[in-house]
Amino acid sequence: MQSKICDLLGIEYPILQGGMAWIADASLAGAVSEAGGLGIIGGGNAPKEVVLAEIKKIKEITDKPFGVNIMLLSPFAQDIVDLVCEEQVPVVTTGAGNPSKYMARFKEHNIKVIPVIPSVALGARMEKIGADAVVVEGMEAGGHIGKLTTMSIVPQVVDALKIPVIAAGGIGDGRGMAAALMLGAEGVQIGTRFLVAKECTVHENYKARIIKARDVDTTVTCQHFGHPVRAIKNKLTNEYDRLEKIELKKADPDLVKFDELGQGALKKAVVEGDVDHGSIMAGQIAGLVKKEETVKEIIDSYISETNEVIAAKCSRWL
Fold first, then answer.
1. Which end of the chain, N or C, is less packed with Cβ atoms under 10 Å?
2. Any transmembrane segments, and where (predicted)?
């Protein structure tokens, strides 16, 4: 399965692993790269020394291409930019901001830059400043989301841009990957499915909640205040909903409560295993995830099912 993304990044399969904060460490990213995709270390709000340690670990795990996700609103964003240049990281994905001021630096170090975008306008802007590709993420995804669905936004971005487009959000198996390719994407980015990979180091309580999830078990918090986040329903999301209903009745909403409620919530779930009061970020495909598998098993299943679906449909139509 070859695509422009494979050629651009030097990978075997057009599959990127999402750069999930607190989750996407060297163990997961290294396994994805070694299995033929592009593993991505999630920088999140981590300081330089923490990300450096993960980069050193992944270089011990694999000699294949990997990436680092830089959250541009992080207080350490400039430090991480310096780090990826110093360590000659081959690929950078960016989120939560505009990477314009760093592009020249990235290009000087031959780093491929792939911003994550939620709209056509932002995609066009990223192409103009020199992005090598874009990840178009629909609201089906876990974590921080936009307002457009994958099915609607991917073909619009594909039509508007000349650089390769990678689809993300709601791609739970090979059928979803086949659909993304039919919409014009050159590859896919997967997050939630990798949460239950054996090489993923999230707390077992987190994995168990993903595996037990049904189709209706995710919700979006802060739809009216702050930044919308998709996660598995629990006591934390219920508290967000309760506060939001209260604030909607006020003329001057107090947003401080929302900020305090979410502080450290992801770490609680990922590291401490608190699946009641922690944020169990997951996409709507959680209902498709039935068991823990190795990264290689996950990637192989995506590729084989994608090929089977496309072959079956094409033979039927022709």
1. C
2. none
Residues 146, 79, single domain; the answer is yes
> Distance between CA atoms of 46 and 166, rounded to whole angstroms?
26
Decide: 112 and 91 in contact? Cβ < 8 Å: yes
Identify the CATH number of the domain in which residue 10 sits: 3.20.20.70
Strand partners, 10: none
Instruction: Tell me, yes or no, whether 207 lies in a domain.
Output: no
Tens of pLDDT, residue by residue over 265-274, are 888 888 888 8
Total tally of structural domains belonging to the chain: 2
Give yes or no for a contact between 215 and 284, defined as CB atoms under 8 angstroms apart. yes
Is residue 207 within 8 Å of 196, Cβ to Cβ?
yes
Tell me the pTM.
0.86
Residues 102 and 155 in one domain: yes
- Is there a single domain that holds both residue 137 and residue 195? yes
pLDDT of residue 250 exceeding 90, the answer is no
Residue 305's domain spans which residues?
A: 4-202+286-317
pLDDT in tens, 69-120: 999 988 999 999 999 999 999 999 998 888 989 999 999 999 999 999 988 9
The reply to whether 195 and 66 lie within a common domain is: yes
Dmax over CA atoms of the chain, in Å, equals 60
